Amino acid sequence: MSGEPFKGFDWEVIRKDGTVFTTEISISLMRVEKGRPIGFRGVARDVTARRKMEARFRTERARLETILESAPVAIVVADEKGRIILANEIAAELYGRPVPYGEGFDSHHKLCLCYPDGRPYNPNDLPLTRSVLHGESFSEVEIAVIWPDGTRKDLLANSTPIKDAKGDVIGAVGAFQDVTSFMAQREDLRNIKRELQKRVHERTAELSHSKEILETIINHIPVMLCFYEANGQVKLINREFEDRIGWSLDEARAMDIMEACYPDKEYRQEVWGYMMEAKPGWRDFKVTSRDGSILNSSWANNRLSDGTRIGIGVDITERLE
Which tens digits make up the pLDDT trace of 165-191? Predict the structure, then answer.
């Protein structure tokens, strides 16, 4: 025998009534003053309850580890000091580097966690740390992790404190979801939106410029123009029309322009029939202007694709003289 003490040996003992209990036995060699062994000394204590509790703990831990490893997201558990004590395989893969188990929360800087704009996180401000230190809960916080090779992974972080029966914080658990592809798609959509906005702005500027050119042409062309609906409602007249006939656009829209320009009912119906036919060619008409004078003019009418018409008129007074 070596004479070395033997400690912590478990024995299962069967009582007289048949029940079984577990004892922890420690044995040491007894010696006289000169070292000669004279016997053994043993201490036994009942550890049945403790062993059952330890067995339950191992079972629960195994169950927890199974849940963690089968979870579709990264899960990290920290103790009351913010030290990582448990992390599943997905978490280790997501970090892209060894997990600093058992180290103070300051060691979390080794994980290279950043804000979405690339600024590094202070370990004190990380959701998991704040859940431990301040009892706060966080949901869908955007975090980025930078791998040693420079690869960036975008994450959504959720964390919540773990409390004991008294309500004291004894740790925290965090769940991290890899949303890199989603963020890339979102950025692509943002780029597409910016490009569309740019094109719309450019197109709007082009249309505005084209409108300005068209309005300039319409208002300076030396012929009368009148755009009108099939019911005779005026939509637009140009400056030449206003100068020759006498009514402004607002006035023309608010009145029966046909009745004003052609007071005679039969003559007005003849003109209206010509306008509705919109046949090719020109036809001369006498138009009564605002001051009551008669304007000798020649008109052509065209039907547009949206059903509106455009009347084009020229003053032929000089030609008739």
Answer: 888 899 999 999 888 888 777 777 777
- Cβ atoms within 10 Å, residue 169: 16
Residue 68 to residue 117: CA distance in whole angstroms = 30
- Sheet (strand 113-114) strand order: 84-87, 74-79, 169-178, 152-163, 138-146, 113-114
Task: Compare 207 and 238 and report the one with higher pLDDT.
Answer: 238
User: What's the token pair of residue 20?
Assistant: 């079984």
Residue ranges of E strands in 32-115: 37-46, 74-79, 84-87, 113-114
Task: Concatenate the DSSP letters of all residues of 120-163 into one string.
Answer: BPPGGGSHHHHHHHH---EEEEEEEEE-TTS-EEEEEEEEEEEE
Rounded to 5°, angle at Cα 41 from 37 and 42? 150
Residues 6+ apart with CB under 8 A from 63: none
* Contact yes or no for 142/126 (Cβ under 8 A): no
Biggest distance spanned by C-alpha atoms of the chain: 156
Q: Is 248 exposed, middle or buried (0-12, 13-18, 19+ CB in 10 A)?
A: middle
Taking the complete model, does pTM exceed 0.90, yes or no? no
